[in-house]
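Annotated sample (chain length 763).
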Amino acid sequence: MKRLLVVLSAFSLSFLAQGQNINQSKFRQLSDQLATPNMYRTGGGAPGAFYYQQQANYKMDIRLDDENQRIYGEQTITYINNAPESLEYLWVQLDQNMRAQNSLTQQMKTSSVGKGMSANQIKDLFYNFDGGFKIDQVSNEEGTKQGHTINYTMMRINLDAPLKHGDSVSFSVKWWYNINDRAKLGGRSGLEYFADEDNYLYTIAQFFPRMAVYNDVEGWQNKQFLGRGEYALPFGNYDVKITVPSDHIVGATGTLQNAEEVLSSEQLERLANAKQNTEDPVFIVTESEAKSAEKKKAKGEKTWHFQAENVRDFAFCSSRKFIWDAMAVKFGERTVLAMSYYPKEGNPLWERYSTRVVAHTLKVYSKYTFDYPYPVAISVHTDRIGMEYPMICFNGGRPDSDGTYSKRTKYGMIGVIIHEVGHNYFPMIVNSDERQWTWMDEGLNTFLQYLTEQEWEEDYPSRRGPAYLIAPYMRSEKSDMVPIMTNSESILQFGNNAYGKPATALNILRETVMGRELFDYSFKRYSQRWMFKHPTPSDFFRTMEDASAVDLDWFFRGWFYTTDNVEIALSDVKWYRLNSKNPEIEKPIERKEAQNEFIGDTRNEADLKGKHYSDAHPEMADFYNENDDWTVFPIDKKEYEKYRKSLNEDEKEVLDAGYNFYELNFQNKGGLVMPIILRFTFVDGSQIVSRHPAEIWLKNEEAFSKVFVFEKEVKQIELDPFLETADTDLENNNWPPKVVQNRFDLYKSRDYSRDNEMQRAKK
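Output written by the structure step:
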């Protein structure tokens, strides 16, 4: 311990890159990255005075061919141009063309041949599915041929005359396609085949030609659909009639218009009861009824009629295997119907949890954003899937054939339902461009999923959200990593980049950087500003700052625009005390320190004891033999008294307090500047937590020191004690240094089959 009063020197600030007059500060503003504010989008992140968006209304007649597993459709699209400029042509998305044999997706696939390949691996080298839209006809409002050009997954409608501001145009498309078997070909939608009963369960989406987005940012968003970057779609109204086998149950986006025609009187009564029940789900179709229906196939057909207003897409499910339950969720005077459709293979998990999870999700998400505005929210079960559409989503999570299930299956199912239902908010309502920025819907949604999971159950085993869970990814090889602000098709480590890292960043913003009150207010402002609109990353970044008065440019730049990681080291700790100059206090301490530091040669000490010359002549001893350097002499006391008289009362108070000064040195090894959180444990066992904003790095982004003053002596210092900054190396976060075991696995190693065995034993 050094007994000197230390004066910290100021660090110099260097903003300039070596050899370049360029601002390289991690705290520089984001203006060079964000779009320039204009009449459409303000500098505060809100829609501008002249903000506009297009509208596309659909009227469709759809037929599901259960014998041949095909979808047939005839549709009319009415497109309304609200843009200030005229449009010479329109772009329509043909996403099913991704499955065509000559698609870009197939052409860009890479493959290799190796020894010991399995039959399935060899089979994957072939692609002979007759996929993609078969366009029979495109016609104009007069019913004559409409000029058009198909470029893989995009179709251009060649207008006869420019579509002026405020005008609308209608055109019709007649089409069909073969439905993909998801077990064989994969996909976000398709069919699941049940061989035991020769039955199908259909989850149908991206099934019709859909208008692309035209806006002030991109013009037409007509990037090709390659399979990963999802969808950018305008809002509109839908009127859809779906013809299916008469024994099928259908769920879809929107509200059912002809329930009396397609449901029995008993089912109608049950549905009415469900609309009044906010406590427990009510079965509209029971498991026994579904089992009975799947044993035989009706020959007739029924048409289900749905309407939806102000939605960006439409999807549906259909099967004779469906169990169907529902319950009410109240938002003031409004009643939303939470519903689930699932085959018997989903039980007992699905009847126990699904609809309750849907209701819980709507309540929690609404608390942080806005009240759920649609009339229904539906969860549909089919194996190994998770995909979202307005008011309806498709979710996995299937028990074993005997009805038992592991902990992983249970929480995986609950998590995927929360996530996919949550997508109603992002991007179905806050309608970001998924084709361009996956994180704007997946990342924001995963963040809210984490909050919803934690409100579902104490110690819920969330896979993403807490800062420490992202640390393994953050410390991985930079060559296998790209910034969050990367186009959807170019992302590496998709789940970590687009889901985990942005969700974690938002959680750190909320808990550590901004605080819950400021974050929640700002996040709600963003959500409500951009309901039923098309936000960009700039709008999100600007709103979070504008509504909170917190400068977040350093955070968004570091977390979203770089691959830097958090690796802050507590590199050195020095302990100081003030020299009181009181010889009766200081000299005993100095003696102890000198004895601790002295290392002498004691090899002959025993042999020489009593044999020194001075030992035989004690009369030679004088003043210096009788006293040492640490003896307190009267002159020492006199000088101390003189020193005390020279001090004023404030100086005496500081001198007598016995303060401990700890100079802590920090190094930024990972690149990301972050707040400094410290926990001090004192010798008496008490603790304090000291928090410092990221701006503590402002004068030196690579290293700094800071002095902490305490009356008590410190026993231990911990940096990031609550693992809230995603620090990737915990071993340099402690003083005195100690070995820290980094534990980042969500689930401890265990045999999950034991869960199933325990359930079987209970049966």
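Annotation: Residues 242 and 304 are 5 Å apart (CA to CA).
Annotation: Residues 52-106+125-179+198-234 form a domain with the Immunoglobulin-like fold (CATH 2.60.40).
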